[in-house]
Design a protein that fits this description.
With about 450 residues, the chain is an alpha+beta fold. The protein is built from nine helices and 16 strands.
Amino acid sequence: MRLHVILAAVCWCGFVDSRKIRGISSSYKRFYRERKSFLCIDGSKVIPFEQVNDDYCDCEDGSDEPGTSACPRGRFYCTNLGFRPHYIPSSRVNDGICDCCDASDEYNSHAHCQNTCWNLGQRERAYVEGQMRTLDEGLQLKQQLIEEGVLLWREKQSQLRELQQAAEDLQIKLEDHRRRKHEADRRKEQTLKALEGGDGGLRRQNSTVTGIFKLLDSNKDGSLTVDEVQAKVALVHDEERVLSEDEAVALLGGGNQMDLTKFQHTLWDILTKGDSVKIKDTPGAPGSPAGEDPHLKAVDRAAEWEATNLKKVEEAYETVNMEISDLQKKLALDYGTDWEFLFLNSQCYKLKVYEYTYTLCPFNQVTQKSTAGTEVSLGKWGMWAGTPKNQYSQMVYENGEPCWQGGSRSTTVTLTCGTETALRSVKEPSKCQYIMDFQTPVACQPVLKQRGIHSEL
């Protein structure tokens, strides 16, 4: 009799214990200590303790049936020793399908579940260890890139200072060449005035007038005729056309011939202005002192020389200022706290997806090129758009080419940790909105390493 009582007590305790423990995580065991009553975890009701795990739902939050499927809101805890523990809805308990890798959810069903937690855990541990090795290598590479970024940043700053110094030197040289050109132009103007004024100038002019008259007077009879004017004089803007008889007569002052005296006060003035007619095959206006006086030729060449030199210095000054502007724009960008992303500038990464080739040029633009050769802009550099904890985890490229549905194309680039810098994937989840996975060592974060492998593994 006594033996029967002892056996019954042991069985009852085991029964109560099995109902008490099954489906409960270690952090919740304090709520299920055996006592006369059980308080629902949401505090809504107190029930006798023997009603816990009795396959009848008493608590609204389902806390009295953690190991059965009685409560619609209940949760069953899979211990999954050797793998990751997790909760499943209590409706899946004893439903004939193995949800927990340790088979604890099918303790009272006909399902033949095997404990696969160790194998799953082993695979996940191998994966995590591989990720940790990648992270270790990525962090080492990141440190190298940080060091290179710092050196590159200093190099760019030094380059900027050199360009700014060159701009200052060119500014001084520019002012000097402007002064020289102004002086050369002034000397040329003074020479022209000197040649055009005074008796000496008049004699030279008269000598020039006589020379031009003799050039036009083909038969050397001391007078110009309509035929001679037609043969030697042409329109400035239509040199190939022969003057008509009426046009030649008009140039001769209305007559059919003209002597030297009349030439000096009529046709000579017209030729000297050079805006309507000229002597054939003769550049410039005949009779102007520029083609005759050697001193004027010298000052004219000097003025042209100074103008050429000034233009060269102006072009060099403009080029240096453009380089300064471009470099300042590059240096104004955010390349990370340690300039670790600086090496990406001026680099481009390609990936072919079906008939398209996608090109990512960090801090510049994203493009899509078809096999037919058509290239489309998917956005220009916009901003960093990561999380508050890691703002450098995402890039946004915006204001690409217009989309046929309205708006413009844009691309979001997610940066992930890896031992190589490469464009890994491109997707278009919605029309004209693209997402890219860009892998690089500089995306590796030490915080990931500190977490280590999951404690449950």
